[in-house]
Amino acid sequence: MSPGVAIVGAAECDLGVTGLSILGLQTQAVTRALADAGLTLADVDGIATTTVSRFSATQLADYFGIEPRWTDSTFAGGSAFEMFVARAAQAIEAGQCEVVVISFASNQRSARSRKLGGVHEPWIPEAQFEEPYDMLYPLSYYAMAARSYLHRYGGTREQLAEVAVAAREWALLNPKAFRYGKGPLSVEDVVGSTMISSPLTAADCCLVTDGGGAVVLTSLERARDLRQKPVQVLGYGERTTNTSFTAVDDLTRPGAVGSGADAFARAGITPADVDVLEVYDSFTITAALSVEALGFCGEGEVLDFIADGRIRPGGALPLNTSGGGLSYCHPGQFGVLLLVEAVRQLRGECGDRQVPDAQVAVAHGTGGILSTHATVVLGVDR
Amino acid sequence: MTAEPMWVPGEVPPADEVSTPYWEATRAHRLTVQECTACGHRQHPPRAVCTRCSSTESLTQPETAGTGRVDSFTVIHRAPRADVAVPYAVARVRLTAGPIVLTRLDGRDDPEAWTIGDPVVVVWTDLPDGRALPSFRPDPADPTKES
């Protein structure tokens, strides 16, 4: 890709249980990311965000006193932020804008705004043909995907639990993690947790927390004059596959197959070149299916692939090094925090959980019910 | 007599101009699947366009065999609304006609006793407005059915 775009700032807002407003948390995320980059609101001419209000990017621009040259409020669940990186890179390379802030924040835990189901507008087909059956949204879709996968390949719930066990190991190394200091999680803890939508238990499900973050992008040329080591956007790809529970024929092969292939091809790399992998883990099965679909192992192999501890600290494939949505933070849309952690790993800022000499990182977001899939390849500027 | 489903559905939104043929057929407990007479494609839920050939003029809603097989399922232990008894099984059923539908599975004391691939047949729950909501139970007529 040329002439090149880089992430030059990254930050979290307060995480966990904050008692703060959405716009208060958004302000933390954006101002901290800008400060990290050595920039201010006056430098920003592009804004991408979701879930502030009906006019999300417009709302944030107004709140910050900015009249942007470019905005994006595409709502695509947790994958929107990886999609925003692609669109922002294109807008910067096209000269439409120069400094883009991508942000998200939620106070869902403090506000007790998370629901188990009932998210469909009454005029869409799902309201007539799916919601009357009282499935949990999004959990029951992932549960059916897990059932399909385990049935087809003969895997076990215990094997799948490794995703949550490994995430906890990483979280124990991250002082910002919601489960930091809470001790390790065992396979027995996961499979013995409260069954919610079988075969997935409460411990197969991500946290419900406040939180969010922001990243700042600009041209690679300008990035080299800023205070942080630039993290270059090397590639991206996305797929949009479904809103309904019934559109996708094979629950075990998500759109990450295509989004990952596109992103790796654009970056000119293969999964073997990836040092750090940050994938959406709304549920254990989300991460497992994504690792497989992105091509890190063959079809039907992921549960055996991760069984040797390779996704844990010190393993060959460091996965969700923050502790992930399962043990670090999940504010409803986790995608921006995948980017923040990838950037920090590539800068070498991660302390006890730092992956040695990380040169290439992948952030892969998933939205809805395996609905939207977006992959971003990031690399240290050389 | 077949066992009736033992649950009370939540409110089902009214039909629109596209879904009216589907819902009208449910009043007579007839399960229909939208079919394009131009290209033969079948799709669910019904749409204003054929997703295969883009026709908007050739869409019909013929009755179909109310049979299929469990594509996948989950047993829900924490309901999304009040007054829903748990546990219960929600499934994707692949209809013999082709498309997949979301549904409940009825007719087994232990909902975890279902298996992917189980043959099923439609059963109906009448709604207060005269329409009916389909769900599925084990298909006793299927020769391949395990006990």
From TrEMBL, chain A:
SUPFAM superfamilies: Thiolase-like. Residues 237-379 form the Thiolase C-terminal domain. CDD domains: SCP-x_thiolase (cd00829). Coiled coil: none annotated. Pfam families: Thiolase_C_1. It comes from the Bacteria. GO terms for molecular function: acyltransferase activity, transferring groups other than amino-acyl groups. NCBIfam families: PRK06158.1. This is Thiolase. It comes from Mumia zhuanghuii.
Automatic annotation (TrEMBL), chain B:
Coiled coil: none annotated. Residues 23-57 form the ChsH2 rubredoxin-like zinc ribbon domain. Pfam families: OB_ChsH2_C, zf-ChsH2. Residues 64-124 form the ChsH2 C-terminal OB-fold domain. This is Zn-ribbon domain-containing OB-fold protein. It comes from Mumia xiangluensis.
